[in-house]
């Protein structure tokens, strides 16, 4: 597919912001929130690109031996082509040896994301009622890194 993962730079933020706005409605991060990530020592930021164009991104927090996927998205025009799975595998490989567990929150109605995470070995461990600003529940999903598929 000609994909490449690399660390995000501040120059990527314009495109990251665009993908973020087209991926999340009520939960889109502000530019300030995206910029703030670059100043957090526990924040790791990656983009996936194709032919030099950013088509997806993630922000991962690594605190001691726990990792949190704070946000993860593929540009709408690139979805359903295996980019998300390819990218998530690389992110998990980056975390192996650094974290014992990876967790994330996902909207209960977000079937594409839940299916992707399940297929990578994540399991639902709890539900947070009314977690999102519109009242939707979040599912908390976790992957123990020793259970991760290669
Ligand atoms: C979730 C997301 C990252 C998936 O990325 P993607 O590149 O489209 O995913 P892939 O093409 O690699 O598909 C991987 C798996 O995801 C699931 N999936 C992807 N799109 C799906 C859809 N429309 N319906 C159901 N399952 C879907 C499937 O399990 C798929 O595996 P399969 O093709 O073997 O069935 C993408 O839909 C996205 O950016 N959504 C908006 C942002 C978001 O919700 N992020 C997650 C927040 S926690």
Textual characterization of the structure:
This protein is of the alpha+beta class and 150 residues long. The chain has one domain (3-147): Aminopeptidase (3-Layer(aba) Sandwich). Helix content is 27%, strand content 35%. The chain has four helices and seven strands. The chain has helices spanning 13-23, 31-37, 83-95, 111-119; strands at 3-7, 43-50, 53-63, 66-74, 101-107, 123-128, 138-144. A seven-stranded mixed β-sheet has the order 1-2-3-4-5-7-6, with helices on both faces. The protein is globular. The model has no long low-confidence stretch (mean pLDDT 95). It binds coenzyme A.
Features:
single chain, about 150 residues, alpha+beta, Aminopeptidase, 7-stranded mixed β-sheet, 4 helices, 7 strands, globular, binds coenzyme A
In brief, what are we looking at here?
The protein has 150 residues and is an alpha+beta fold. The protein is built from 4 helices and 7 strands. The protein starts with a strand and ends in a 6-residue tail after the last strand.
